[in-house]
Amino acid sequence: MELLQQYLEASHHFVSAQSVTVLIGLLTILLFSVRIFVPTKAARALRKVPGPPSYPIVGNLVELFSKGYHECHKEWLRTYGSMYKYVMGDTLLVVSDPDIVQQVGVRMFKTFHDRPMPGFVDEERAGKALVFSKGQYWTGVRNAVLPLFHTAKLQHFGRTMHECAEQLVARLEKAAANEEQVNLLEWAGAMTMDVLGSSAFGVTFNSQVGEKTDGLTLTKAVSENLNNIAKLRISTLLAILFPPLRKPAQWMMLRIPGSADYVHRQRTAYILRESQKIIEARRKVRERLTWRLLRLLTCPVQEADVAETRHDFLSMLTQARNKTTGEPLSDKAILALVFEFLSAGTDTTANTLSFAVFCLTNNPAAEQKMCREIREFYEKLEKEGVADSEFRPTYDELAQFPYVEQVVQETLRLFPTGAVISRQASQDCHVAGIHLPKGVNVLIPVYAMHHNPEVCPDPDAFRPERFDPAEVAGRHPYAFIPFGLGPRMCIGHRFAMEEAKLALIRLYKRLTFTVINEKILRPDGKLDLQVGIVLKPRNGMWVVPQVQSK
Ligand code: HEM
């Protein structure tokens, strides 16, 4: 009897798995036919716009994934001009003329208020944070979070950034003494994680203190998550080509241990668990427990020194109300925001720092000019009787390093980690004389714009002098947009600039670097780049640090 029952249960599972497969098969055929024979609204509206030839079903996906979308846009901009279309799931419009970019991102903000939500992100979570939230909800959350980035706060964060940069310098000096090869991308990632932990969350991750700290594990998980989120896996492909099939396909893939979806889900779950621990630690502070009680028994916040007096992002969030609805932020919204800040606020700046070191190492004249500016500043300070150990430049004082700023800007021009930005039309409208129906996605190819020789002559050359005030005045204000534009511009842009400048100042006060070309260049001698959600050096940034001679 028991045997019969087991048989019936097994066959029941078999039948249901079989019916799901048949159903998916039929749906696929139906969707394929619709996709091939019925043009979408966007395809009809954009039929006269030029663009690369696309193939049935896959559109331009193969090219985008094989060459990298940053390179494709560079090529398409050269071939089809400043306005073109391509097909990835639906037909998309790409605009790169700075005037039209300004029109979409700034002047028509009411229409282009939101970004499209890619099918491969977790809609429920992402829709509650900032990057992919929409309409009035986004306005309320953005206004609630904005005070974290006020100038007064940034002045205060400078001290934390300085301390974290000093830890990185100390590690690199040790490596220099041993002539060790170092993956600077990972080490810079640990630094940016510590900066964000202290300044935004009020926790000390200690990512830089050893080889295998929990903070470091979190740094790696975040970085890999960002890489993999847009990688070509079955559910991503279906999310792009046939959104309705994404969920059933993901359901199946998640049951196969080791599959890309399975690994991705596990990594995301880990980051969410860590985010939750951070929130709980902060909540306990609000309940007036002493921080000693907050040493959690499990990693990585177990090491967290959660100071009661810090007015950070989390204390603000837990007390914040959505400025539009007046409602307190839900627990799910707070978790989504912590997750998003861990993702958006660490890897981006670490990539930029690594790219800056790469550019400087390959351009000794710029490197020397920057080192001179740093040296002269500290010599002047010494003459005024202020010791280096006592000096922590504030946000405003960083203005005294104009060339360092230009180096960061030129790095972001050559290697903007947000290589493409997007907006979605919330109503029918006209852009540059083209009628766009509601729902059409418009992309701005930042990387391609920054490499357009008509806007930036000799675009592959690293020349921080492009950002001399006289040269800037001669350029369109929307020709250089590494942090995006308009009200939806990167909320952390001043935080990121402050962190990158401070880190470069502290690094180049004492060190220089040799890059290990064999580990990071392509056979054609160019830096090997990878684009997932962000643009980054594919194989890390391998360097040998050297202590500067006095
Ligand atoms: C060098 C470092 C960084 C770069 C290059 C960068 C770039 C960008 C870009 C291009 C966007 C899209 C803007 C648009 O669509 O117009 C963006 C959005 C965003 N960034 Fe950053 N970012 C950096 C650092 C940071 C940091 C440090 C944080 C947080 C601490 C952060 C948080 C965000 C958030 C939350 C958004 C979404 C904003 C919204 O939709 O309201 N980013 N970033």
UniProtKB/TrEMBL annotation:
Q: Which residues form a coiled coil?
A: none
Q: Taxonomically, which superkingdom?
A: Eukaryota
PROSITE patterns linked to this entry = CYTOCHROME_P450
Needed co-factor(s): heme
Q: Which Pfam families match?
A: p450
Spell out where the chain crosses the membrane. 20-38
Alphabetically, the GO molecular function entries are:
heme binding; iron ion binding; monooxygenase activity; oxidoreductase activity, acting on paired donors, with incorporation or reduction of molecular oxygen
- Binding residue positions for heme: 490
Record key words, sorted: Heme, Iron, Membrane, Metal-binding, Monooxygenase, Oxidoreductase, Transmembrane, Transmembrane helix
Task: Say which family it is in.
Answer: Belongs to the cytochrome P450 family.
Query: What protein name applies here?
Result: Cytochrome p450
Q: Which organism is it from?
A: Klebsormidium nitens
